[in-house]
Write a structure and sequence with these properties.
150 residues; alpha+beta; three-stranded antiparallel sheet; two-stranded antiparallel ribbon; 5 strands; 15% strand
Length: 150
């Protein structure tokens, strides 16, 4: 769908457009100054028009225009740009050597944390059922009837 695609900008860089929801599409049309596109969101034939719109300005200018917008328009970053992205840095994904970025840490945060074995079958059944209001007697009855295992 053209409303969910990647487009080249005037400086040869790329942006993603991900505006499936009508409210985000409306916001995109407003920022792009193209209210005529509003009823055409799901027309497959508007891809060329959207490509022409994005080719009119460099990526940084588009990002600035969409900065306060609800429309989902984001940069497609190079590897080097990604290493400098504030969110990537904040999440600890950048591996550094002598203060210089050299690669990526695992995106799986649990891979860097303390590991624990999986719970045994039924290990948390009683506490889970009690947390939703079942009494000890009700839980015992369910176990006796074979509905749950403890």
């Amino acid at each position: 769908l053209p409303c969910f695609s990647v487009y080249e900008t005037a400086d040869g860089k790329y942006l993603t457009l991900a505006v499936i929801e009508p409210t985000f599409w409306a916001d995109f049309c407003s920022v792009a100054n193209r209210p005529d596109l509003l009823p055409r969101q799901f027309e497959r034939t508007i891809g060329g028009e959207l490509a022409a719109i994005f080719r009119k300005k460099p990526r940084a200018e588009w990002l600035e225009l969409f900065a306060d917008s609800e429309a989902c328009v984001e940069a497609v970053n190079s590897f080097e740009e990604m290493l400098d992205h504030p969110q990537i840095r904040a999440r600890g994904y950048v591996r550094e050597d002598n203060g210089e970025p050299v690669g990526m840490n695992s995106p799986f945060v649990f891979a860097r944390g303390k590991s624990a074995p999986a719970p045994r079958l039924g290990e948390h059944t009683e506490s889970a059922l009690a947390s939703i209001g079942l009494t000890e007697e009700e839980i015992k009855e369910l176990a006796e009837r074979g509905v749950i295992g403890l």
